[in-house]
Design goal:
Helix content of chain B: under 10%
Number of helices of chain A: 0
Strand content of chain B: over 45%
Largest interface: A-B, 21 and 22 residues
Oligomer: heterodimer
Number of helices of chain B: 0
Largest sheet of chain A: 6 strands, mixed
Distance between the termini of chain A: 41 Å
Radius of gyration of chain A: 13 Å
Structural class of chain B: mainly beta
Shape of chain B: globular
Shape of chain A: globular
Largest sheet of chain B: 7 strands, mixed
Chain lengths: ~110, ~120
């Protein structure tokens, strides 16, 4: 089976750095996605990792360790607009077109 | 460029009524996904189509739910009869290709309330 765990809520201060963790169990790894979802809006793609290591994309970076079943999203120079839910998702081991989603981490950025 | 279009954006109906949700995928995308999102269960895949053909409907909760994709630019998700536990946000998403690494692009969702 597959399982994804993320912290439910996090709080951070504008201008700071925050790390949002995602741990997973899967019988067949086919990459890991991060999506951002603002309240009342649709999820939007942030990153896709399939190899170990850190991938940087502007203020957002995503890290993956396949051996540890672990990923994190690193947000730098936090802005108020980064207040959102961050969703970790895995392609299904038996059918990689199907995504299995974590419940998301709700990030509140305070001034 | 237009993104994924969904209608209606909000729907309030009474238990027992039929509900039809509509989706227009991004032009050129050949895969379409229907999701349901609730606080308790998060995002759940209901069904997905590839080239207008239903590939996997194992996430459809029961026979009250049905989905169709008559052409490449239109899909419907129907609930008949609706029940209060169907209240959720329903998202449609589309993607190109047939790989698990393809990004899915989501529509704005339909917020369904069944009284």
């Amino acid at each position: 089976g597959q399982n994804i765990d993320q912290p439910t809520e996090m709080t951070a201060t504008e201008g700071a750095i925050v790390q949002i963790n995602c741990t997973y169990q899967t019988s067949g790894f086919n990459g890991l996605f991060w999506y951002q979802q603002h309240a009342g809006e649709a999820p939007t793609f942030l990153s896709y990792n399939v190899l170990d290591g850190l991938e940087e994309k502007g203020r957002f970076s995503s890290f993956l360790s396949r051996s540890k079943g672990y990923s994190y999203l690193l947000l730098k120079e936090l802005q108020m607009k980064d207040s959102a839910s961050y969703l970790c998702a895995l392609p299904h081991a038996g059918n990689n077109r199907k995504l299995i989603w974590g419940l998301g981490t709700s990030l509140a950025v305070n001034p | 460029d237009a993104g994924v279009i969904q209608s209606p954006r909000h729907e309030v109906t009474e238990m027992g009524q039929e509900v039809t949700l509509r989706c227009k995928p991004i032009s050129g995308h050949n895969s379409l996904f229907w999701y349901r999102q609730t606080m308790m269960r998060g995002l759940e895949l209901l069904i997905y189509f590839n080239n207008n053909v239903p590939i996997d409907d194992s996430g459809m909760p029961e026979d009250r739910f049905s989905a169709k994709m008559p052409n490449a630019s239109f899909s419907t998700l129907k609930i008949q009869p609706s029940e209060p536990r169907d209240s959720a946000v329903y998202f449609c998403a589309s993607s190109t290709g047939t790989s698990g690494s393809d990004t899915q692009y989501f529509g704005p969702g339909t917020r369904l309330t069944v009284l």
